[in-house]
Amino acid sequence: MNTDPISDYLTRMRNAIRANHKVVEIPTSKTKREITKILFEKGYILNYKFVDDVHPGMIKIALKYHPTSKLSAITELKRVSRPGLRKYVGVDEMPSVMNGLGIAIVSTSHGMMTDKEARNQKVGGEVLCYIS
Fold it and tell me: pTM score, two decimals?
């Protein structure tokens, strides 16, 4: 039993990137689906597919690399809020990752969104992770 599924998600992504895998498979959950959609919208991953016909359901994520240098679009994945120490911020304390070049994924009362979207909607929430 995994006690922190988001940390497991980020670790699987990190390990796949370090091993230069094209695709990574991760067990699904509602939170992981939302994080995957945000990563796709912001251009950090190439594509994704939700596979629900197996138990447990899986998310297949096609990782994005530069065509010539083979560097990943994701350079760092960092877990912020964790089960033992939650990190909540208001709209005025919203973090900026790499001076706006990265994103922070925030769980708000309006759903999952990036730090920029949360600032625009003037909502705070739990900072789940930093992606750059």
Answer: 0.94
